Amino acid sequence: MGPPKLEVLERPKPLADRVYATLREHLRAGRVPTGQPLQEAALATQLGVSRTPVREALARLASEGLVVPEGRSFTVPALTDQDIEDIYALRHLLEPEALRLVAGRVRGDRKALAPLGAALEDMARAHAADDGAAFMDANYRYRDAWTALVPNRRLVRAIELYADHVRYLRAFTLDDAAVRKVVLDGLERLTAALARGDGEQAAKAMLAHLERAKRILLEMTKQMGAAASAAAG
Question: What is the rounded CA–CA span in Å between residue 225 and residue 175?
């Protein structure tokens, strides 16, 4: 009998990847206001790392369009109405098709659908309690649950990227009870279609959900623009 075999050690995630994930989550959660400078040295100090992994993370975020260079720093871009239209045009192409694929895999699979149902129940409770933050958290868990069921992981990465472009704006809309009700109703229809394995209806439900979300964001940016103009005047 030979010596026992050693298991391959799991390598820790590269530091630049961890910095990237941390900064991306802050951007997604709306913790970095539009226009606020993201400076390499300051971020390195806050995170307790050298400037190199921060530089690499910022370059990666910039390549994805989540931040833009401005002088010697980076900022979160202010999205125009055309930006929102363009982003949602891409989401309209990607997400309904992804859910069409999912529906064919999960019909009657209670275990696969359980995380969606749990997140939906949490959203309903948060809505009843008028807790926008808890609703948003459950809403993102619902998204994570269905994207985990998509067999094409490259498609998932594209979906996540374009959803992240507007995620920080969505954080400002879910404190509104009327908006939460629209979101909840749309996702209930989507969940029902997935449970039936009806890919066509799941795709239609997501398309309608995205269209309503786009209209809400466009109205919000219009109101924010009017408020900024009034303050300046």
Answer: 19
